[in-house]
Amino acid sequence: MAKLDAFDLRILARLQEDASLPLAELAEAVGLSSSPCWRRVQKLEEGGYIKRRVALLDRDKLKAGVTVFIAVRTARHSMEWLERFHAAVQDLPEIVDFYRMSGEIDYLLKACVSDIAAYDALYKKLISRIDLSDVTSMFAMEELKSTSAIPLGFVGEG
What we know:
Blueprint: H1 6-17, H2 23-30, H3 34-46, E1 66-73, H4 79-90, E2 95-100, E3 107-113, H5 116-129, E4 134-139
Antiparallel strand pairs: 1-3, 1-4, 2-3
Helix pairs in contact: 1-2, 2-3
């Protein structure tokens, strides 16, 4: 796909706000007619800019309102261990984000659970699958900002 233009960025911004917008409303919001808007959405999907469209659910209503950040430091730094760790968390639905970090923490996981007992059960599942040497768990007391929106202001830089 060619370089993104202002219409593409407006489409992406609106879809990040509400991916369920009917095409006519999306087109009107970005200043295009329906057919050109639809073609652009298809190109954005084909180009990989839109990976998928999902619904954002209410964690509290679904009894998964406790957010836990799990910081892992390891003495093992091999591809084999990383692949085993990666495989160990893949089918744990409570773990919603998993990052390899720079700095003092090697890996950071974000989990959504119902309570401390549910976190303890998750922790026990995790350590039964892989040997972890240093684990620190931090429970979020209050969510001050959370978004799935990607900032679009960097497009066109450099």
